[in-house]
Amino acid sequence: MAFSRSSRRRTFQLWFERGMVAIATANLLLVFFDLSYIRFRDVYFKTLPGPTNWYGETFKGIEEHRVTAAYLREVDTLQETLENEGLDSPTANRQLANLRRSSVDLIDENPFAVANKSGTLERIKKEMRDRTGQENSSKEALRTFWSQSYLERGWSEELDFFDTQIRPRIETNYWRGIGFNGLPIDRFWIIDLPFAALFGFEFLLRTYFLSRRHENTTWMDAMLWRIYDVPLFLPFWRWLRVVPVVVRSNQAELSHLDPIQGRINRILISQFAVELTEVVFLRMIDQTQNMVKAGQISRWFFELTAGKENYIDLNDVDEVQTIAQRLTDIVVHKVLPEIKPEVDAVLSHTVTGAISQAPAYQGLKLLPGFTNVSEQITQQISAEVSKNLYSSLKQALADDRGSDLMGKLVESFGQHLRDEIQQGNTLQELQELIDAFLEELKVNYVERIAVDDVETRRANTYRLYGTTQKARPTPAKLVK
């Protein structure tokens, strides 16, 4: 029963999300249409002239331009006269003279400039020059076109040319009103307001219930979780609504953007990781150089080895002595038993070399079989020495006295090392050498980075990131 209730709830949430995605997509399409209306008005006008004009007049403050509209009305009047009275009538001659003057004014005043459509006027001028053969002057081409002698060749055909090639271009011109804010009129908010109100109310309601559903989550935290929904009800930057639409469609299982998201993440992470590695590495070296130049490392070393009172001890443990003791135990109990054959070989070689230098040994070598006996004695001596040395060290560390002596040895070593370093210019020389070494390390690292193939580094980064993505479990989607 509980499973069935949960399943129904999940189904309802899924369809609710899909319904909201459909509404958001419709709103986004309207936003894109509005943003592209002015730029592509000519295309929309050719396809749907009626709705295009209605939308422009209603929401963009667009009206027909008085100059171009009056020009087209003059052409319509001339066409009626030619059909009723003929080309030779006084009325037709008077109207042709008016059209010649209006054509010159059309070129001089350029009413297309108001709508940023001067290119349309240039196309009209080129069409008229090609039609009349007046290649040198657009004004002369228009005067020729609206002359009685030119139209006598066939005024009906010429007016058909005007209606099919020139009139549609002139009709695309318009005049757009200016609002009180000094900007062109834009009433798209009338369409957008219901959508913004819906998504704003949904945002508040959704984030409120989201904050109640999860413990230790404030309403502001929930709003930050759903911050990508904010463009849905912002009155500006409406093109950003593509982000919440894409995210919501993925959440509603209408699209699968996880592979694309993974690729984008890898690209961003690879770029960031390469740059971050270089910056962090160089920054660490810079900080170390500054500490060396300021003497902080040397002061830390002296305070640590000398056990000064101003040195802050967090756990009442002498870490240096403890580390030395631990390393000694490892060497004696773990390392030496493993390398005993090698130690014996070294001691045997050393003893043999020392004995061979003795004058008596040169004479004894002449005796038969002495060489084999000498090697056996040398091996026995070496094995016995290494055995006694190991036993002595192990025995020395087995009791408290030996541990105390080893501690004093470490302390004495640190004291003498500190004293010797402070003699003369040793400390300054060491600091200068360390600083020079770090500077060379920086230069060589940067040079290697510059020479290294960028694509190779990116490929390695992709490989590492892909491995981590496969190893990391996919987190469950948060129900919102």
List the helices and strands and how they pair.
Elements: H1 2-37, H2 41-47, H3 49-59, E1 62-63, H4 66-84, H5 90-109, H6 118-132, H7 138-145, H8 148-151, H9 155-171, E2 175-176, H10 189-213, H11 219-225, H12 242-251, H13 258-294, H14 296-306, H15 319-356, H16 359-364, H17 370-398, H18 400-422, H19 426-451, H20 454-471
Antiparallel strand pairs: 1-2
Helix pairs in contact: 1-12, 2-3, 4-5, 4-9, 5-7, 6-7, 6-9, 10-11, 13-19, 13-20, 14-18, 15-17, 17-18
Strand order of the largest sheet: 1-2
What is the tally of helical segments?
A: 20
Radius of gyration: 47 Å
Helix fraction, binned, reads over 70%
Q: What series of H and E elements makes up the topology? A: HHHEHHHHHHEHHHHHHHHHHH
Roughly what is the average pLDDT, rounded to an integer? 76
**First-residue to last-residue Cα separation:** 23 Å
Largest sheet properties: 2 strands, antiparallel
Derived structural class: mainly alpha
Unreliable spans are: 360-367, 474-480
Principal-axis shape: elongated
DSSP strand (E) fraction?
under 5%
What's the count of strands? 2
Written description of the protein model:
The chain is an all-alpha fold and 480 residues long. Among the domains are: 64-176, no CATH class; 276-309 and 424-463; 326-414, no CATH class. It is built from 20 helices and two strands. The protein has a two-stranded antiparallel ribbon with strand order 1-2. The chain is elongated.
